[in-house]
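User: Sequence in, structure out. Go.
Assistant: Echoing your sequence, followed by the C-alpha cells.
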Amino acid sequence: MTPEESQNNLNSIRRKTDELLEDLGPEPVEELAQSFVDDAPGTIVELTTFAEQKDVSNLGRTAHSFKAIAQIYGLEATANLAQEIEQACLAENLGEACRLLPLLERSTEASVTELINFLRNEHQIQLRRPQ
C-alpha cells in the first residue's frame, strides 16, 4: 500500500469508525471490529480455497461479502480489491481473480493493522491480533 493509499485508508477508517461509535457506542464497535480482525485471515484462506477449486461462484460471493464488511470499517483499499475479484468472477475470469488474491491478502493485513492501531490510538479500544 502506498503512503497515499494508507492515508486515504486512515481517513476512511476515521470517518466510518466515528459514525459507528456515534451510532453504537464503544463496546459494540470493539466487539464487531474484533470479529472482523479474527475472521479476516480465515476469509482469505476461504477465497484462496475457492480459487484453487476453480469455484468462481463461491469465490465471487465470498468476495462480495468481504467487500461489504471491509466497507463497514472504511477499509477502502481492501473493499476495492474484493470488488475487483467479485467483478472478475462475474465475468468468469478466474485468472484475473487469482491474480488479485495476493494483493487482497496484503491489503487486508495492512488494513487490519491500520484498524487496530487507529482504534487503540484514537479511541483506546484494544483489539487482539488473531493467533
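User: And one key feature?
Assistant: The mean pLDDT is 93.
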